[in-house]
Every structure is written in structure tokens, then in C-alpha cells.
Amino acid sequence: MNEEAVIDYFRWRQAEAARNASHSWCYWTLRKSGVGVAEAVRQLDRSTVSIKRELLSRHGVTLDDVPTWQRRGVGICWETYEKEGYNPIAQGAVFARRRRVTVNMDLPVNEAYDALLCRILQTAGMNSRTASLAESALGLHL
Questions:
Q1: What is the mean pLDDT of residues 21-44?
Q2: Region 88-95: what's the mean pLDDT?
Q3: For residue 6, what are the domain limits?
Q4: Quick count: other Cβ atoms within 10 Å of Cβ 13?
Q5: Tens digit of pLDDT for each residue in 67-80?
Q6: Could you give the CA distance from residue 43 to residue 114 in angstroms, rounded to a whole number?
């Protein structure tokens, strides 16, 4: 697996999150307006993006006004940082490298998303070992 395959996978995931968000907003908008389960499913079956946007617009919902994390998903990754501590033997400050999970609730799109993914992969030191770990963790078989 290479960097391009990882980026393609995450772009697909982001697009899928957008499709799911649109569908879910439409489904629950219909349900809240009194439409039954079967009828809501029937109305949304094979609906285009423009039909879904029109449906939401009729009910006063603008998908672009929905929080970004609800439309594109959430990014979660490891971040390395320096933590200051105190060494009582040397009686001075010391620094240790630590990792923590970070959450990005405002993921960019298109080229900006690719650039973000490239930075994350470079920080992680993307190589054949990390690529195979990513492939395994993501369930990809390329």
C-alpha cells in the first residue's frame, strides 16, 4: 500500500460520510414531519443529491449550515508533543516526547484534505511497515 491508496481511502470515507449525512437528515426530516418508516425509505430510495437538498429546503434545513463534523465526519489521529517535567535529581526541567489522540471536528475538503492527510502520513513516517499496519487496521487489501 502506498500513500496515494491511503489518501484515496480516506477521501472515499469522507464522501461516504457526506452521503450518509444527507440521507440521514432527509430521513429524519421526513419522519419528524409525520411520514412513516416505509414511506420515508421509499421516498429516499435512489434520490439524487438535488432531490434531497430540495426536500430539506422545503423543511427549512440547509445542509451547508449543518455543523461540518455532521457532514464530513471527524478526524482522529495521534499527535506527538513535548511535555515539560521536573527531574528532582538534576533539579531542573526535562522534556519528554508524548503522544495523545487529537480530534479534528472541521475536516477540510478536496486538495486541502489531501494535504492534511499527507502531513499526517509524513508525521507518522509512512513507509512499507506503517503502510502494511494501516492496511491491516483499515481492512484494506490492495
A1: 96
A2: 95
A3: 1-142
A4: 13
A5: 999 998 899 988 88
A6: 35
